[in-house]
Amino acid sequence: MQRLAGETLTAIGRMTVAATELEHLLAWIGADRAGGDAAAVFAHPGEPLRAARGSAEFAPPAHRDEFIAHIEGAATQLALSQAALRALWREDGGRRDPEMYNEIAGRLLRCCDALQTLLQESVGGRR
């Protein structure tokens, strides 16, 4: 991997923190499937998304489809963030412009906001 400009590193950091925030929220959503222990869910890579998918099936009927859609949207954005980061290690080095990483970070944070809003509307959930 080649050296990255400071602005790009900062944008990658924002994207990474946004992805981690989204995974933390997914762990909280999925915690009921793990005895209510969000920290245990969060501690295992990939587990927050899997647990949230399992919990979405038990969401209030009026909001179930919306929960499933938002969780699948979160899955897509998490996959895109991982792909963008991993692309830096490709032979061609992947994209290095901070705008791309900032855009992905924004989408990850919008996923968090949408899920948090849906939680509050459907079950009065708070983290």
Which helices and strands appear, and what pairs or packs with what?
Elements lengths: L5 H25 L7 H5 L4 H10 L7 H23 L11 H26 L4
Helix pairs in contact: 1-3, 1-4, 1-5, 3-4, 4-5
Could you explain the architecture of this structure?
The chain has one domain (15-123). It has five helices and no strands. The chain is mainly α and 127 residues long.
- % residues in beta strands: under 5%
The structural domain count equals 1
Radius of gyration: 16 Å
Q: Report the count of strand segments.
A: 0
The largest sheet, given as strand count, sense and whether it forms a barrel, is: none
SS content category = mainly alpha
Instruction: Give the helix proportion (percent range).
Output: over 70%
Shape, per Cα inertia axes: elongated
Mean pLDDT: 90
List SSEs in N-to-C order: HHHHH
In terms of per-residue confidence, which ranges show pLDDT below 50 for 5 or more consecutive residues?
none
Number of helices: 5
What are the salient characteristics of this protein?
single chain, 127 residues, mainly alpha, 70% helix
Q: Concise description?
A:
By secondary structure, the chain is mainly α. Helix content is 70%, strand content 0%.
